[in-house]
Design goal:
By secondary structure, the chain is of the alpha+beta class. It is built from four helices and seven strands; from the N terminus they run E-H-E-E-H-H-E-E-H-E-E. The longest helix is centred in the middle third of the chain and has 11 residues. The radius of gyration is 12 Å and the shape is globular. The model has no long low-confidence stretch (mean pLDDT 93).
Length: 84
Amino acid sequence: MKLKFFGELGMKIGREAEVKINGSLNFDELIRKLKETFPEAKEEFDAVDLYIISVNGRIVGKEELERMKFSDEDELIFMFWAAL
């Protein structure tokens, strides 16, 4: 999975990252995986509601995110709302 981060996440992790999922995860499982992979940004992932998230080039709302499954083929962009 390709990831891009803007805002606090970008400052702590870097602007781009790649994470292997090997299967599919729902959004909560994905956030847990990202917290494990990037422990220095755990607080930011705890406050993920403050981010606008784009999935494969489309901005997705919280309700839709919770219904989606994510795989290594996806690209997510996390944009801190205050940074826009």
